[in-house]
């Protein structure tokens, strides 16, 4: 004998199992059975909100903090451009400073004409 008013149906479209102990996803807040509660098992579109991995700079091996909603690749790139203390990053800063000085000098030369 089934009790259709007891429990809840799994939100995964291919499942829809009536579960007497349904679980609510903490990211998307939908109801799932025990087979589909994991983010990967129900293709959770809100899983990124719960992803708390900390990327590491490939040049200086320093953990780079990323706020929720930010793209880790962009934040690590900004770290390399601004804060990275590794030798390749420092050389990049030096090349950038030399290039900017050259552009400024070129601009000054054009003003003399």
Automatic annotation (TrEMBL):
The keyword S-adenosyl-L-methionine does not apply. InterPro entries: AN1-like_Znf, Znf-C2H2_ZFAND2A/B, Znf_AN1. The keyword Signal does not apply. GO terms for biological process: proteasome-mediated ubiquitin-dependent protein catabolic process; protein targeting to ER. It holds the Pfam family zf-AN1. Signal peptide: none annotated. Residues 4-52 form the AN1-type domain. GO terms for molecular function: zinc ion binding. GO terms for cellular component: endoplasmic reticulum. This is AN1-type domain-containing protein. It comes from Junco hyemalis. The lineage of its organism: Eukaryota, Metazoa, Chordata, Craniata, Vertebrata.
């Amino acid at each position: 004998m089934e009790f259709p008013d007891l429990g809840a149906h799994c939100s995964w479209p291919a499942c829809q199992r009536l579960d007497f102990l349904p679980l609510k996803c903490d990211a998307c807040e939908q109801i799932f059975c025990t087979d589909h509660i994991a983010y990967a098992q129900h293709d959770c579109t809100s899983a990124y909100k719960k992803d708390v991995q900390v990327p590491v700079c490939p040049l200086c091996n320093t953990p780079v903090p990323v706020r929720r909603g930010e793209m880790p690749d962009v934040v690590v790139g900004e770290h390399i451009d601004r804060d990275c203390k590794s030798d390749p990053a420092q050389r990049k800063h030096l090349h950038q400073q030399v290039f900017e000085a050259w552009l400024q000098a070129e601009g000054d030369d054009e003003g003399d004409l």
